[in-house]
Amino acid sequence: MQILAQAPTTTTTLPFATFSVLRRPQLVVTMPGSKTETLALAGALGGGVAALLLLWIQKRRKDDVGAIPAIKLPAGSWFSIQALFKLGKDNIGYGSGRLILQAVDPSIGIGSLVIFGQKTILLRDPELVQEVLQKNHQAGGDYGKSFKGSPLDGLTDKTFGRGLFFAEDQDPQWAVAHKILTRPFSHRGILNMVPLMCEQVDCLVAALECKMRAGESVHMYDYLVKMALETIAVCSMGTPFDSFNSTEPHPFPVAFQAVLDAMFALFNVPTQLWSCCVLTMWRMQKAVGVMNGLIDEIIRKRFDKETSSSGKAPDLLDLMLAEGSKLSRENVRSQILTFLFAGHDSTAAAMSSLIVFLVANPRVEARLVAEIQQVVGSGEVQAHHVSELTYLDWCLKETLRLLPPAGSYQRMAFQDTILGGKWKLKQYTPIWVDVFALHMDPETWGADAACFVPERWEKGPPHAYSYMPFASGPRSCIGKEFSIMEQKIVAVKLLQRFTMHSPTAWTARTGSVLIKASESLPHTILGIDAEFSPQQFFVGASIPVLLQLRDPPC
Ligand code: HEM
Predict the structure, then answer these.
(1) What H or E segment, with its residue span, contains residue 143?
(2) Could you tell me the CA-to-CA distances from 352 to 275, 341, 396, 422 in Å, in that order?
(3) How far is the CA of 347 from the centre of ligand 1 (A)?
(4) In this structure, which CATH number among 3.40.50.1220, 1.10.630.10, 3.20.20.10, 3.40.710.10 belongs to the domain 160-406+469-549?
(5) Of the candidates 511, 554, 498, which has an alpha carbon nearest to the alpha carbon of residue 385?
(6) What Gene Ontology molecular-function terms does this entry list (predicted)?
(7) I want to staple 97 with a disulfide (CB 3.0 to 4.6 A). Which of 15, 226, 437, 470 is the partner?
(8) pLDDT band for position 24 (cuts 50, 70, 90)
């Protein structure tokens, strides 16, 4: 027997319509097996299921509001790192940028992907980048720099330590060191370093002249690395590594590269299995021991006043070892390692890419040479010339746009928050500011985004946050002005002295990949064949060049 609630009706018929008016519900008793009962039962069940379904759909919709869309991996890749490697044949550093440009809707500008086992947010939209960089931890905002949960976190303490580059925002030593080191990297501080920079570039020019006289082609990247390492070593700690004078490489750059090689090898393995990579770990620790031993000795000598700054002003070591600096000896070592790390390969990669673009674009090179002739002539380049070299500035910016040495950098949501007034972020979600995607986005830069066009800089960037090679905010590059000054001095001195051509046929060196001009590199048009090293932390293109003396010299 079933008891069902039923709402009987009173029916009224008018000439044009029929109304059914509900009366107060009554209890209707039905006997099992009757037709009425089966129909009522089915109706009640159907209604229940429909109501549940409606509730579930409503809840799903509510949860979905603000959920960041997951990035669809390209066909044939079954996990994100594999996709990033596949899209970054030249260097994995550009893999995420290419993925975003392919897979993230420009009208949304944000996507999520599981990288190294962490749900990571990738940004393509300059407005969202602006919000993340502006609402930083130091300004009381929700975003900051931290490697929590990333494989880099564990490796940093074992290798370069927590100098400025690798320190977390919450690390009190970052603020102390940042305050001390801001002064030497201010505009005035850099002007003091110009004579030291010029000396190192002269050593580069002399070494290149030797190669030219021997009729040999030169891999410019290798020579620029030596020059940039010497420059930062002399400017920061008054101690050269003699890269140009000695036939044997100095143990520091050798150990440095061994550490990087080990780090790259470990990135290919899940962190849980690192303890099984005994040989790689041993090699890494051995190389770290060599680096630390050399830097500790340099610090000791300065502490004991056996050495002094190379320039007129106190250098980084003087400032960090000064009484009351509050930095431990170990932290001073990490800072020096950080400056050597962040300060040489980055600039060398940028300069090497500039040479590739100049050799590929003779029209641009001719305009640049004419500007140098007009502003500097054939004499020594001075700091005041540098601000007058507008076209050179455009060429450097365009190079850093197309081949940014730092392809991306990470920030993190320090608490649950909403990005762009819409996107829900959970505490400790990593956010990648994808420089490559920002710089190459045709939505922002136009249809010729992939082409080398220095003239586009006459108007400035299309959005204040669409060009971010050095980042922005408190964790932006402290060495930006240093690097730009160094790059400009190198460009002037090289173009005053030499013309450069690429040999007709050449092959990539072991460990590097050759990208043919005819082969389309997604999102970047190089114009000529160029080589990339997947093992480089900072990305840059390289070519061998044949040098000739410029006639007449400018
Ligand atoms: C073309 C050359 C360079 C590029 C593209 C570059 C790029 C960057 C970027 C993107 C960051 C921010 C990284 C992040 O937020 O995780 C950074 C930070 C940093 N850079 Fe550079 N950099 C260059 C040259 C240099 C030079 C020459 C030096 C040293 C003289 C230097 C020292 C540093 C340091 C110490 C930091 C960490 C700053 C902090 O967090 O307090 N960089 N760089």
Answers:
(1) strand 143-144
(2) 37, 17, 11, 41
(3) 10
(4) 1.10.630.10
(5) 554
(6) heme binding; iron ion binding; monooxygenase activity; oxidoreductase activity, acting on paired donors, with incorporation or reduction of molecular oxygen
(7) 437
(8) very low
Residue that has been written with the tokens 């700690």 in this structure: 237
* pLDDT, tens digit, 9 for 90 and up, residues 421-465: 999 999 999 999 999 999 999 999 999 999 999 999 999 999 999
Give the whole-angstrom CA distance, residue 366 versus residue 353: 17
Burial 272-294 (b: 16+ CB within 10 A, else e): eebeebeebbebbeebbebbbeb
Measured in angstroms, how far is the CA atom of residue 476 from the centroid of ligand 1?
A: 7
Task: Say what the pTM is.
Answer: 0.88
Residue 232 Cα: closest atom of ligand 1: 30
CA of 411 relative to ligand 1 center, distance in Å: 15
Q: Using CA positions, which residue lies closest to atom 17 of ligand 1?
A: 477
How far apart CA 129 and CA 465 sit, in angstroms, is 7
Taking the domains of the chain in order of start, what are their residue ranges?
Answer: 1-33, 160-406+469-549
3 state SS for 263-299? HHHHHCCCHHHHHHCHHHHHHHHHHHHHHHHHHHHHH
Is 451 one of the annotated binding-site residues? no
Question: Residues lining ligand 1, CB < 6 A?
Answer: 145, 164-165, 178, 232, 338-339, 342-343, 346-347, 350, 405-406, 409, 469-471, 475-479, 482-483
Closest atom, ligand 1, to C-alpha of 475: 40
Going from the Cα of 178 to the center of ligand 1, the distance in angstroms, rounded, reads 12
8 Å CB contact between 499 and 548: yes
Residue 95 region by backbone torsions, left for phi larger than 0, else alpha for psi between -120 and 50, else beta: alpha
Q: Which amino acid residue places its CA nearest to atom 32 of ligand 1?
A: 479
Atom 18 (ligand 1) nearest CA: 477
Task: Answer whether 470's CB lies under 8 Å from 480's CB.
Answer: yes
Q: How far is CA 441 from the centre of its chain?
A: 15
Measured in Å, residue 359 CA sits from the centre of ligand 1 at: 27
Quick: pLDDT tens for 535-554: 788 999 999 999 999 986 66
Instruction: Please choose from 433, 477, 488, 536 the residue to mutate so as to test ligand 1's pocket, defined by most ligand atoms within 8 A of CB.
Output: 477
> Rounded to the nearest whole angstrom, what is the distance from the C-alpha of residue 470 to the centroid of ligand 1?
6
Q: Which of 498, 501, 528 is nearest to 516 (CA)?
A: 528
Contact by Cβ (8 Å): 439, 404: yes
Write out pLDDT tens, residues 150-159.
888 888 999 9
479 CA distance to ligand 1 centroid (A)?
6
User: In what side-by-side order are the strands of the sheet with 218-219?
Assistant: 218-219, 544-549, 498-501
Atom of ligand 1 nearest to the CA of 346: 2
Contacts of 343 (CB under 8 A, 6+ apart): 228, 232, 236, 479, 482, 483
pLDDT average, residue stretch 211-234? 95
